[in-house]
Amino acid sequence: MKEKLKIGLFGYGVVGQGLYDVLQSTPAFDASIDKIVVKHKKERNLPETMFHYNPDDILDDPDINVVVEVIDNSEDAYNIVKKALQKGKNVVSANKKMLAEHLEEMVRLQKENNVSLLYEASACGSIPIIRSLEEYYDNDLLLSVTGILNGSSNYILSNVFDHDQSYSEALKEAQDLGFAESDPSFDVEGYDSLYKLIIITLHSFGTIVKPENVLTFGISNISEFDINYAREKRFKIKLVGQVERLHDQNISLFVLPRFVGRDKYIYSVEEEFNGVVVKGKAYDKQFMFGKGAGGHPTSSAVLSDITALAHGYKYEYKKRNYFKKFTYFKEGAVEIYLRYSDPEILKYFNFDSVSEEYKGPEYNYKIGFIKLSDLIKINDKLREMDIFIALTGKKLNY
Ligand SMILES: NC(=O)c1ccc[n+]([C@@H]2O[C@H](COP(=O)([O-])OP(=O)(O)OC[C@H]3O[C@@H](n4cnc5c(N)ncnc54)[C@H](OP(=O)(O)O)[C@@H]3O)[C@@H](O)[C@H]2O)c1
C-alpha cells in the first residue's frame, strides 16, 4: 500500500486511546486516525467531531483504507471486521475471542476479497509471537509453543506464590490495579488463554481447532491446600497454554494450571507479564517475554500491524497452505494432580494409572495419568466441581 494510511478506529478504550497516543509519538509514520466509532456519547479527551456512533460512517467512507477494530464486544467486532473485509478494507484487530471463534471464515474472507487482516495484538499483547511463527518459524522444525498467555491470572498467581497472598486477596489487588476485570472469569477460567492458543495454533501448525473442543481449566478453584502442596515441592503454579506436535502429524493442545519448577523459563515470568517458549528441532528452546496487556504495550502491536499493512503485508498462513496437515489428537494422556473433597466426583475421572494418593480430613488428592479426551468430555462439569487440577508435566502417547 503506497498511499497515506487513513485509519478508521473502532473503540476508544484502553487500547484505542493507547494507539492514539502511540501514533502521536511516531510522527515520521504517515498515518492518521480520521474517524473513531464508539458506543456511548460521553466526554472524551479529543474533539467531539472525531467521534461517530454508526459503524457505516467508517465502513462506507471510501477515503478510509485501514480499519482498526479494538472494541470489547466480540459479536459486534465480528460484524464490523467481516463487513470491512467485504468492502475491500484492510483490517487490524485485537479481538482474540472473535478471531478464535471465526478463524476459518476470517481466513476465507481475506482470500475472497484480496485484503489483509492482521491481529498481532490479539495474542500476548506486545510480544510478536504471531508474526514470528508466520515468518521466522516458517519451517518444519517447530515442536511446541508453551506460554503464560494471560497477564491477569499470572499477576494473581505471582502474588500468591511470591507475596503470600490468598487467592481472593490477590484477585482483589489485581482488580484494584486494573489488571483484572470486575468479572474476572474470562481471565481466571482460562478462556482468554484459550482464544490466544487457538490463534497461535493456526500459525504454528496450520490447524484451526474450535475453542469448545479444547480442554480448558483455570485457577479460580485454587485452595491453600494446593498452594501448600506446590510450595512443599518447590514449585509455583502457572496457568499454561500449550500446543505441541506429536507423532504422525498430530498436535495436542490445552489450557491448564501446571506445577512449574525453577528449571523452566516460565518460572520467572511474574506479575502481569507474558512469556512464550518456542521449542523446535535444531534450535531447542527460545523464550519471548514481555507485556501482554495494557494500552501502550498492546497498541505497539497494533501499530506494528498498521506499518506492516503499509508495506503490503498479509499472513500467508504458510503452515496451512504449504505444509502437510496436522490433526488435533486428543488420545494422549497427561499426568494430573486432582485435588478433591467429595470422593463421589472420582467416578467422572477415568485414570489410566495412579502414582500417588492422599486422603486427609478436608481434602484428598490423586496423581495419575488420564487421557485428554476423557477430561474434554467432562470439561463443563469440571468447572462446577470443588476440585483443582494441575499438570505435573509428564505425558504418555505423545
Ligand atoms: N486492554 C488490553 O490490555 C488488551 C490487550 C490485548 C487485547 N485487547 C483486546 O482489545 C480489545 C479492546 O480492549 P480494551 O481493553 O481497549 O476495551 P475497553 O477499554 O473496554 O474499550 C472498549 C471500547 O470499545 C467501544 N465499543 C464497544 N462496543 C462497541 C461497538 N459496538 N461499536 C463501537 N465501539 C464499541 C467502547 O465504546 P465506549 O467508549 O463508548 O464505551 C470503548 O471505547 C478487546 O478485544 C480486548 O480483548 C485488550
Could you explain how this protein is built, in words?
The radius of gyration is 22 Å and the shape is globular. The model has no long low-confidence stretch (mean pLDDT 96). 34% of the residues lie in helices and 27% in strands. The termini are far apart. The chain has 398 residues and is α/β, with parallel strands linked by helices. Among the domains are: 5-127 and 295-322, NAD(P)-binding Rossmann-like Domain (Rossmann fold); 330-398, Alpha-Beta Plaits, CATH 3.30.70.240. Bound molecules: NADP nicotinamide-adenine-dinucleotide phosphate. NADP nicotinamide-adenine-dinucleotide phosphate is lined by residues 10-16, 37-40, 70-73, 76, 94-96, 121, 125, 293-294, 298.
Poorly predicted regions: none
What portion of residues belong to β-strands? Answer: 25-35%
Q: What's the overall geometry?
A: globular
- Name given to the CATH homologous superfamily of the domain at 5-127 and 295-322: NAD(P)-binding Rossmann-like Domain
Quickly list its features:
Alpha-Beta Plaits, 7-stranded mixed sheet, binds NADP nicotinamide-adenine-dinucleotide phosphate, alpha/beta, 15 helices, 398 residues, Rossmann fold
Give a quick rundown of the structure.
The chain has 15 helices and 17 strands.
Produce the secondary structure layout.
Elements: E1 5-10, H1 14-24, E2 31-37, E3 51-52, H2 56-59, E4 66-69, H3 74-86, E5 90-93, H4 96-101, H5 103-113, E6 117-118, H6 129-135, E7 142-148, H7 151-162, H8 167-176, H9 185-188, H10 191-205, E8 215-216, H11 224-232, E9 236-245, E10 250-260, E11 273-280, E12 284-291, H12 295-310, H13 318-322, E13 327-328, E14 333-340, E15 351-359, E16 364-371, H14 372-377, H15 379-384, E17 387-396
Parallel strand pairs: 1-2, 1-4, 2-3, 4-5, 5-6, 8-10, 10-13
Antiparallel strand pairs: 7-9, 7-11, 9-10, 11-12, 14-16, 14-17, 15-16
Helix pairs in contact: 1-12, 6-10, 7-8
The structure holds NADP nicotinamide-adenine-dinucleotide phosphate.
